[in-house]
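Handout for the seminar on molecular recognition.
Each group receives one record of this type.
Step one: identify the two inputs.
Step two: read the structure output and locate the region that could contact manganese (II) ion.
Step three: write two sentences on what you found, then compare them with the reference statements printed after the record.
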Amino acid sequence: MGVQFEPVNPEFVARATNIDLRKPVSAEDKEAIVKACDRYGVLVFPGQLLSKEELIAFGHMFGEVDKTLQQKLMNHIQNRLGTDEITDISNLDADGNVAGATHWATITTVGNRFWHSDGSYKELPIRYSILNAVTAVSWGGETQYADLRAAYDALDDVTRAMVSDKVGRFWSHNTRDQLRIPDSEKDRAAFPKSRWPLVRTHPGSGRKLLWVDSKLCEIEGLPLPEGRALAFELIEHIGQRERVYSHKWTPGDLVMADNRSVLHRGRRFDHSERREMRRVETNDDVKSLGVVA
Ligand code: OGA
Ligand code: MN
């Protein structure tokens, strides 16, 4: 018997058992994981504390592992784990000590507190984000996921018609700007804005989804303030309680999310506690409509 999935939430989250991700994953299990991700969008694998090498190997099973974020933006803060294939999303300094609230490594993770899909601002975005918890904090620090397919289904008719032919522009630093994180002009320009239809169809499930996240900074054809106000409204709609799953981390949890189906965000916690987390991301093969400066 291979990997088993049981729904955590009937709509979009499943828990995986009967698999050890430290060992090579069979072709059948890999296919079952892809299918389950198409169906649910979020898969929780408890008890899978992987080494760096094992985490990278797991990522490679599902596509090319992204290095661009690490190379363009993260490595010049620090590269504690010594690889471009894993992003250290911990609140730790280069020596592995708790960095504290004012350290750049901590501040840079604060941008993750807005609802987002990893890489929505890239021409070639991210398909899967795989998070692995090494430690967990005593309060808060959950990662929440919100279902973009259910959000599309729940739109009222007027709004659905309005967004159906719209194209949005997504910018990497839109969230960081709102937080007034003082990034350099070079970093702010590291990724040109990507253009995306606001309604997309998921290739694996055929379901339509509302492609909106906190990187959406402009909607083409609408006055700038109107588009930005609409973006906030749609994100609020996506993040309604009935479409949200909140993952409280236990060390060793591995969560795999399909960025085309769900948004996610990190929740507040006390920065004097150790939250050690690793992330591997795979590239999608569907490009955006292009990029603009
Ligand atoms: C991320 C992210 C959320 C969290 O690493 O891409 O959004 O809870 N993380 O750390
Ligand atoms: Mn993220």
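Reference statements: Residues 112, 116, 118, 264 surround manganese (II) ion (ligand 2) (CB under 6 Å). The chain has one domain: 4-292.
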